[in-house]
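Letters spell out the chain; backbone shape is given numerically. Both lines appear below:
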Amino acid sequence: MKISNILTCAIVSILVISCAKKPISQSVKKEQPVEIDQLTALKQQTEHNNPFVVDAKNRLLQFVNDKNFDDYITKRGILACSGDENQTSCVLNFYLQEYYKLKYDVQIKRVIEENQTEHNIELSKIEATQINIDKYCQLSADFVAAIYTNDKANISKHFKPLFRMSEQNMSSLYTKVSRDSYSHFLIDENPSMLQEIKADYVEKCLDDPKDNIINYFNLFR
């Protein structure tokens, strides 16, 4: 075979392959934006001069990332509204249904988490055995004594975390102790009186632990 014939065949083969590939790539390019264009058109038609649809969409955007929004609503089936006789009503209902569904899911999740937290707190509480009651009555007396003597370091590092005290709890306890002016007077006059005050507190606490163990209901189950 002549060289010219070989070259001719090669060129023809290349052209045939090129022509065969070209329509496929063009058809792929044409098919890709169809779904996107359909969604864009649907959104534009239904949102135009309709604040209800826009508001419903914005509500849904509270739960769906803006970047993933189109992908989300497409997967959820919004394009079915394209064939609906009343597209606006269809899209409005779609947005609202998705919004309330996600809102409900978030609320349920929050309730479950709160219940789990409460359950964990309850499990972490101390069993109200006599040994523990005795222990925390003594500790409560020590805690009160630390407040009488304004032992801030011991209060913040030891008693506050031990008794699981919030700032509000601490404020209430400080107020209660500060009102006992007579005990303050006795301690100022004779510091050894603090031991008697502690002993009296323990005795009173053992008679009524729920009322005298500091932060009882957050400590005991």
In short: Residues 127-219 form one domain. The chain has eleven helices and no strands. Residues 1-32 have pLDDT under 50 and may be disordered. The CA atoms of residues 138 and 194 lie 13 Å apart.
